[in-house]
Amino acid sequence: KNKYLKSVHNFENDIIEAARNIAKRYHTNRNHTIVMEQLALTIFDKLKNVHGLGRRERLLLQIAVLLHDCGKYISMSEVAECSYRIIMATEIIGLSTEERQVIASAVRYNTREFGCYKEINRETSMSRENYLLTAKLTAILRLANAMDRSHYQKVKALNVTLKDRILYLVVDSARDVSLELGLLKDKKEFFEEVFGIRLVMRRK
Q1: CA atoms within 13 A on the CB side of 125
Q2: Within the chain, how many helices (H) and strands (E) appear?
Q3: Could you count the other beta carbons within 10 Å of the beta carbon of residue 11?
Q4: Sheet of 198-203: strands edge to edge?
Q5: Residue 151 DSSP one-character state
Q6: E-assigned strands of the chain?
Q7: DSSP label at 73?
Q8: Alpha-carbon distance 119 to 27, whole Å?
Q9: Tens digit of pLDDT per residue, the chain (204 long)?
Q10: What burial class does residue 74 get, using C-beta atoms within 10 Å of its C-beta: 0-12 exposed, 13-18 middle, 19+ buried?
Q11: CA distance 126 to 145
Q12: How far apart are CA 99 and CA 107, in angstroms?
């Protein structure tokens, strides 16, 4: 408790490996997840001064990315809801029930409309603090997912720059990314509402 003893073991890696094993069990698209993980974490890191979140929240985002498509194993038409139920029903070592609720909710609202606090609190008893955290993780998850919506890993690199309350996303790709850029526009409004900054997207 007083940090007199420091463990050399990285427990975060255990949590990530547990999440990877769950994703593998439900046959998620590994290539899509790898690309999405890089995109989501890049955006998270560049927004550090805006979102005010730390390492633990970064870990929750990473797990949400790893498990966002696990519901496809059960139903292709109800992916978000099935993913939510799988995450809530699966113990992930090192995560509290509240943290699992945040991850599952971010995954659920990745493709569903994000409700108001009263609505979500009525169903999940989520605190206002966790509601705001879920909104932030959902906004980033939606952007990352839209950038590889075709599952063809078209985006080879993403340059993210924050300047004067404007976040510039410059997508580097040799292939046609019209679908991805079109879907990004749909996610833009929610992202800007959550973080209070403008989002500008370009292709290199």
Answers
A1: 2
A2: 9, 3
A3: 10
A4: 157-163, 166-172, 198-203
A5: S
A6: 157-163, 166-172, 198-203
A7: G
A8: 32
A9: 787 887 778 889 999 999 999 999 999 999 999 999 999 999 999 999 999 999 999 999 999 999 999 999 999 999 999 999 999 999 998 999 999 999 999 999 999 999 899 999 998 999 999 999 999 999 999 999 988 888 788 888 889 999 989 999 888 888 888 878 787 887 889 999 999 999 998 887
A10: middle
A11: 25
A12: 13
203: which 2 tokens? 């292709």
Nearest-angstrom CA–CA distance, 196 and 97: 29
**String of DSSP letters for the chain:** --SSS---S-HHHHHHHHHHHHHHHTT--HHHHHHHHHHHHHHHHHTHHHH---HHHHHHHHHHHHHTTGGGGT-SSSHHHHHHHHHHHS--TT--HHHHHHHHHHHHTTTSPPPPHHHHHHHH---HHHHHHHHHHHHHHHHHHHTTTTSS----EEEEEEETTEEEEEEE-SS--HHHHHHHHHHHHHHHHHH-SEEEEEE-
List all residues 6 or more positions away from 162 whose beta carbon is below 8 Å from its beta carbon.
Answer: 46, 47, 49, 50, 168, 197
173 Cβ partners below 8 Å, 6+ apart?
Answer: 154, 155, 156, 203, 204
- Please give the model's pTM, rounded to 2 decimal places: 0.91
The residue type found at 100 is R
DSSP 114: P
